[in-house]
Amino acid sequence: MGRKHNPRKGLKYTLGLLLLLALVGAGWSWWHMTGWTPDDSEFPAQGALIGASDGVVDFRALKATGADLVYLEASDGKDVRDTAFARNLADAVSAELQVGAVHSFDPCFAAEKQSANFVTVVPRDGHLLPPAIALERTADSCDTRVSAAMLESELMTFLNQIETHVGKPAILKISRQFEDEYGLSARIGRKLWLSRDRFRPDYGKRPWAIWTANTYLRNVASEEPVRWLVLQP
Q: What is the DSSP letter of 229?
């Protein structure tokens, strides 16, 4: 007599094979992303987003690997400041990189307090790139209710105050979650900075000016993965 077919054994084998293929695919995808950057013939201006969490960065090495510019995390909300900003700014300028500053906007706090935090950290320097405002947090976690209209009003006040300080229009670095919640990309007339690993972001209502294209890039300039970005030509 022939051997009995065990359907459970066959199912386990199939599931195991599918799991193995998924793990191989995930591993290849991760390996690919650690070395991938957009084609510089299509995007001549490229660079990185750097903050204290990236550790000590060799900005000369960063430039040697193809960076033309860096954006540095500077301030967050009403009183948080990136402890590495001053060092990173000096080192990036010394490496002859173009440099811009990033403020992370917190909808739970008034514009005046946040702009005061920003101008305390970021110098008034005409050589700096336009400042970028990271819009990632929503108002869901605020102690008191903050409506969408209130958030937009405070953001506009904040923009006016910091733009007076730096003398340039800011860039809105909007996350997909924030855009889904408030849809500000269509209503505030500032250039957009969008993020999506490997594939061009499509959630903004207007074309983007800056794209964070890879948040996993391994680069000799840092022991930590570098957040790589490109500018729209």
A: E
The answer to whether the CB of 62 falls within 8 A of the CB of 219 is yes
Tokens standing for residue 9: 């054994």
d(CA 104, CA 108): 12
Q: Which long-range contacts (CB under 8 A, 24 or more apart) does 57-61 make?
A: 57/88, 57/91, 57/221, 57/222, 58/220, 58/221, 58/222, 59/88, 59/91, 59/92, 59/94, 59/95, 59/97, 59/221, 60/94, 60/95, 61/219, 61/220, 61/221
- H helical segments located in the chain: 7-35, 59-64, 85-94, 111-121, 148-166, 176-182
Positions in the chain short of pLDDT 50: 1-2, 20-31
Q: Report pLDDT digits (tens) over 172-211.
A: 999 999 999 999 999 999 999 999 999 999 999 999 999 9
Positive or negative, the Cα torsion across 67, 179, 155, 53?
negative
CB atoms within 10 A of CB 127: 8
CB 171 within 8 A of CB 212: no
Q: Are strands 132-135 and 171-174 parallel, antiparallel or unpaired?
A: parallel
At 70 the pLDDT is 98
Rounded to two decimals, the pTM is 0.86
* Per-residue pLDDT at 34: 74
Instruction: Quote the crossing angle between the two packed helices 148-166 and 111-121, to the nearest 10°.
Output: 30
Spatial distance between the Cα atoms of 176 and 70, rounded to a whole number of angstroms: 22
pLDDT for the residue numbered 22: 46
